[in-house]
Design a protein that fits this description.
This protein is an alpha/beta fold. The chain folds into 2 domains: about 90 residues, no CATH class; about 280 residues, no CATH class. The protein has 12 helices and 13 strands. The chain has a 7-stranded mixed beta sheet. Strand 5, helix 6 and strand 6 form a beta-alpha-beta unit. Helix 5 crosses helix 6. The protein starts with a helix and ends in a 9-residue tail after the last helix.
């Protein structure tokens, strides 16, 4: 009798889940995973005999499975709390900060990045003042003391620097300018309010006075420095969805002043519209990635002009997504800032769009790019 009851409950549960999945409309997006979800296929004759029907149907059912986020959360909680694992799928939590395992260092990728930077320098930068700065992964500030595997940040920057042509490149050390608290708790990126010391170090090298240099890493400090604070919450960073845990989301702050308000932006992405020609694209707030409020997200080429600049100096930044949030403050110190993202345009082609002549040039890359330098395109 007991076996029949168990079987009946099991079958009833399966049937209920099946009916719930059938009755629930497909969701277009997963905000926790920050991606588009696979939609219900068209079960017509062509699809059924395509040879891919089973694979695509399984993929759709997995993406649209009811209570999917809840099951992901249970799995992650079991890994970290029940089975006492150090991480769950490479994600771990220290205090209320979420980290992603950043180990081991990919030495060949770092060498590959240096090789590409050398080629760019020889092609374009002979008349420029050039520096490189590596943005530390936030795990570099916490992992080792908490018993997690993590390579030494200076090992990476030392290897990169040793492979670069010294006549072209100087190093700006950003590690002492940041702490783990200067990054979002649920995301890999740094917060704008944590960039004061970073700007101070960049400005010291290029001999440029950035108004935001040395501002403390609190919202109140930025208010006292004359900046207007804009806040958006809740901000769910990239690690929030990957962790699949019930975590406290972040607040995303972004700052403006009369100079930043006067900046003009030209976003040369072929998909960019009029709403993307701004420093802060507030239409991105509440999207899959609210971090795209900064310069509308990734773009191969963006120029920012400062009509209030007291100088005619220009800065060119080879950057990844971290560059979007620091760009407004860099633009306060120059007449023109050009942002180049070589993940989306090859460096063999950028000479067709950018004239290189006596500018300041900064290679500003996170350790994520250094560890995956094949994403830097040549063609």
């Amino acid at each position: 009798m007991r076996e029949k009851i168990v079987t009946a409950v099991f079958c009833t549960t399966l049937a209920a889940v099946f009916l719930i999945n059938i009755a629930t409309p497909d969701q277009a997006l997963s905000y926790s995973e920050r991606r588009a979800l696979i939609q219900r296929p068209s079960f017509d004759r062509e699809f059924l005999f395509s040879g891919e029907a089973q694979e695509k149907t399984e993929a759709w059912m997995l993406d649209q499975f009811a209570f999917r986020d809840a099951f992901r959360g249970l799995s992650a909680a079991a890994d970290l709390k029940l089975f006492r694992k150090k991480d769950s799928s490479g994600i771990y939590v220290i205090g209320d900060q979420v980290y992603k395992m950043d180990y081991p260092m990919n030495e060949q990728s770092v060498i590959g990045l240096a090789r590409k930077m050398n080629e760019i320098a020889e092609m374009y930068l002979k008349d420029c003042t050039t520096a490189f700065a590596v943005i530390p992964d936030k795990s570099a500030y916490a992992a080792k003391d908490a018993g997690y595997l993590n390579y030494d940040h200076y090992e990476l920057t030392g290897l990169l620097g040793s492979e670069l042509i010294p006549e072209f490149f100087s190093h700006i050390d950003l590690f002492p300018a940041l702490t783990a608290d200067d990054y979002f708790r649920t995301d890999l990126h740094w917060k704008q309010e944590g960039l004061g010391q970073v700007l101070e170090r960049i400005g010291a090298f290029f001999e440029v006075d950035f108004p935001a240099a040395s501002v403390g890493n609190s919202v109140e400090a930025w208010k006292q420095a004359g900046y207007q604070v804009h806040s958006y919450a809740p901000f769910y960073g990239a690690y929030y969805g990957q962790a699949a845990l019930n975590l406290r989301p972040d607040t995303l702050n972004y700052f403006s002043d009369p100079v930043i308000d006067s900046l003009t932006v030209e976003n040369m992405d072929t998909q960019a519209g009029p709403e993307d020609q701004v420093i802060y694209n507030e239409t991105k707030l509440g999207s899959i990635d609210s971090y795209e409020v900064f310069l509308s997200g990734n773009s191969p080429l963006i120029t920012i002009e400062n009509p209030r600049s007291a100088t005619d100096r220009e800065l060119i930044v080879f950057r990844d997504s971290f560059g979007s949030s620091i760009a407004p403050f860099l633009a306060e110190g120059y007449a023109k800032v050009t942002l180049i993202d070589l993940r989306f345009v090859g460096y063999e082609r950028i000479g067709n769009f950018v004239e290189f002549s006596d500018q300041d040039v900064l290679f500003l890359y996170s350790t994520g790019v250094a560890g995956s330098s094949d994403m830097i395109r040549k063609y």
